[in-house]
Amino acid sequence: MSGAGIRAVNGLTARWARTVAADDGTVFSAAGVWPLLAFLADGASGQARAELSEALGAPADVAATAARQLLAEMASVTGLDAALGLWTHQSLRLRDDWRAGLPAGTQGTFGDDLVTAQERLDAWAAERTGGLVERMPLKLTRDAQVVLASALSLRTTWRQPFTELPLRPEHGPWRGRTLLGLFRRSVRPDRVGVAATPDGHVTSLTVPGDNGIDVHLVLGEEGMTPGQVITAGVGLVERTLPVTEGGRLPLGHVGPGLHVEQRPSATPEPVALDVRTVAYEVRADHDLLADPSLFGLATAQYTPGAHFPGMADAPLAIGAARQSAVAQFSAQGFRAGAVTAVAARPGSAPQHTHTTTVLSLTYDRPFAFLTTTRSPRLLLTTGWVTNPTPYPPMHLTPASTS
Asked: Are residues 255 and 304 in the same domain?
């Protein structure tokens, strides 16, 4: 996918982040939504086409080509699976030229037996996400004519795994809880950086996977909103936000959750990075029509109206658009899945002999995560962690974060 296309997907991520509710944690995938909007734009006309083009950040006449390229390039990344599915009611005839623009092997049909049809859609969602998303995020209704869906599944194993330890924060919203903490030491201070934004400072850690997928953990100053922290994360991923890397930071408290000091050491490493974070699983469901303007669907949802004459002779309007997403961050790696679906109805994550500069980074309060391909940096899933995994009941002394 072109640099402009990647910026378009990442731009939708940033705009979505500013509006998404994250009180109980969230995860979403603009990379899962963007191809669907692109294929809809390809078949739309009038105001609906203009709104979809604006939401995409790309002209409607090139959107389908860009969507096919995006899906193909995501599917070519080891550990990343991307698929498109299209199902139409057996009575509806699609236009050949619009259908020809879809990836091969994507089309199926359904009849009036909605129970059987729903089972098939749910099975497709589960299969395409390795069971992370167990069912299609929308239910078929009697007036459904078209269901267009995308599925995204990614998995990676850390190059350097974490060690599981109990972690008990002494301050903040997680105070008093014993969490499944993850610890590791590395000699790569460049994996961490601090950036200043108009909303406050953020600290970002890159956790590289073994297959070209990275997870970025971003901690903002207390008081920053999830949208502000995620927006900063997008800037860091796209390298449009200046960052001071760990090796160039002074001693002292240098960023949210980050402290630099010199300590006696048994090894001759000049610099070390100690990271303490938490394991988490985040699940979220999103109704895209709750904010239709964000996704270019404001006009397209209204009936009467024939908003997609390029798709079919019959008048069509958007009746539902939803996404279900899951993300899991553990000591060994990261897994995520997202299924997005749009339905059209009739129109109407010893002995001390040396001195080491140690960067200590602790995530002991809510933070953001952004998952990307390493090169180019395409944002795949994004989220906010508010409820990390508790430590399994064991008779161990919890580790303090003070």
From this structure: no
Please tell me whether residues 202 and 289 are part of one structural domain: no
Is the separation of the CB atoms in 190 and 182 below 8 Å? no
The distance of Cα 158 from the centroid of its chain, to the nearest Å, equals 18
Are residues 274 and 342 part of one domain?
Answer: no
d(C-alpha 106, C-alpha 141), whole Å: 21
Distance CA 72, CA 100 (A): 16
Dump pLDDT digits (tens) for 199-245: 999 999 999 999 999 999 999 999 999 999 999 999 999 999 999 99
- Look up the pTM and report it: 0.92
Evaluate whether residue 18 is within a structural domain: yes
Q: Domain check: are 122 and 271 in the same one? A: no
Residue 6 bridge partners (DSSP): none
Give per-residue pLDDT as tens, 292-340. Answer: 999 999 999 886 667 899 999 888 999 999 999 999 999 999 999 999 9
Residues 200, 318 share a domain: no
